[in-house]
Amino acid sequence: MRFLSARRRHPAAKVLMLLFALVVVGGIYSVVSPADQVAADTGKSQQIAEGKALFAVGCASCHGLQGEGQVSGTIQGPPLIGVGAAAVDFQVGTGRMPMAQPGQQAPRKKNLYTDEEIAALAAYVASLGPGPDIPAEEDYNPEGLSDEDLARGGELFRTNCSACHNFAGSGGALPNGKYAPTLEGVSNRHLYEAMQTGPQQMPVFPDRALTPEEKRQIIGYLNHLNSQPNAGGFTLGGLGPVSEGFWAWVVGLGVLIAFTVWITAKGARAK
Questions:
Q1: Which residues are annotated as a binding site for heme c?
Q2: Sequence ranges of the binding site
Q3: Taking all residues of the chain, what is their mean pLDDT, rounded to a whole number?
Q4: One Pfam family name from the record (predicted)?
């Protein structure tokens, strides 16, 4: 019995062995883990923290402190959980957000944030839930597209986009006081992000509906369209048959009214 008791382990031995094993594993991981990855994680965390602070000042009054959305009187902010970084980059980069006051639609205007601040806001919203990332330049850069690619982009645009944005991308009216904005002057990245995220009443075009290459072809077509020289004459806003029909109606009806008045006045003088 004395021999067995002498070899009995101390009650704290297991705990000490576990702590020793954890220290060894931690030391080995610190040696073999990539330093760049640790630095990147630290930088990302700092960017998210900066974005959270900006969000609390400029966005939380409508969208809630955690991006959960809220409705309070005239203030209505949709939830942002799961919209992704691309939606923030588009809305803030085009100046649509933050809105000065609630309205039917957020118009494009000069943005209020620097590129670094927009990136921080996007990183914070992306941390709330998975969603579309900000695209890489090769995704939306139309350089290298052939004439066939541009023609294909035109077909895709007329099939999926022209019903709202007009065949020339000049925009058009929509129900309930809303409108499809003009696509002239919109950056390639924001065009791609709009198709990715479907801002406001625009439908979303995920990769299963329009592949990244097809999105790039549409962007190339729009670039080609906007680079065409003006041949002169009255473009009437480039709105096609809508504006042309309106002016034909106004001018034609005006001529008929003037002719009727003239005939009536001439008949009255003849009497």
A1: 59, 62-63, 161, 164-165
A2: 59, 62-63, 161, 164-165
A3: 84
A4: Cytochrome_CBB3
